[in-house]
């Protein structure tokens, strides 16, 4: 196996009386797509939160690009993420929402934002406020947000929720295109066939553990 881009070593996390991550150790290579399957509450989302630096683990280490999360870095240096439902400001347009977020790092232009919106099948000139978006449009905008800064690591939790068949195909094409550019992509999805169509490897999560790997 090549040197790991993400190296997760014996991580554990308990919230209240619930063990949400149970001694997970996995190594993920750069430039590959990893699919994660498991029931609701299996630990997929908590694992993603831990990799993003959104929660601190109780023990173990997460090393990303040779940097220890929580010690060398607080968050992955180049990350695009969509976890659970997209959260945006209801009274702003899609473009204004993304511009607002883009101003945090200030590394992309208005044109980059517009291109990301177009890529997911939305219109950057749409004057409707986010609260008027359909569920599918909200999901597409969430994916545009995750990819707009051309990050090296992309984490998508159920990215095709609320999308029709054409939307699913479009998002899968975007995911494969990002892989072709050397990006590392982590996806959680309930749909086995959908994951198999894009993932280099699929990991099964159950009760906070990685119980199986295929491909």
Which properties best describe this structure?
6 helices; four-stranded antiparallel β-sheet; alpha/beta; 10 strands; 215 residues; six-stranded mixed β-sheet
Summarize the structure.
By secondary structure, this protein is an alpha/beta fold.
Categorize the overall geometry.
globular
**Major beta sheet, strand line-up:** 6-7-8-3-9-10
Beta strands, count: 10
Radius of gyration: 17 Å
N- and C-termini, Cα separation: 14 Å
Mean pLDDT: 95
**Structural class of the helix and strand makeup?**
alpha/beta
Characterize the structure shown.
- This protein is an alpha/beta fold.
- It has 6 helices and 10 strands, in the order E-E-E-H-E-E-E-H-H-H-E-H-E-H-E-E.
- The strands form 2 sheets. A 6-stranded mixed beta sheet has the order 6-7-8-3-9-10, sandwiched between helices.
- The longest helix is centred in the C-terminal third of the chain and has 16 residues.
- It is globular and about 50 Å long.
- The two termini are 14 Å apart.
Write the layout of secondary structure elements.
Elements: E1 6-15, E2 18-28, E3 33-37, H1 44-52, E4 59-64, E5 67-68, E6 79-82, H2 94-105, H3 110-119, H4 135-147, E7 153-157, H5 165-180, E8 184-188, H6 192-198, E9 201-206, E10 209-214
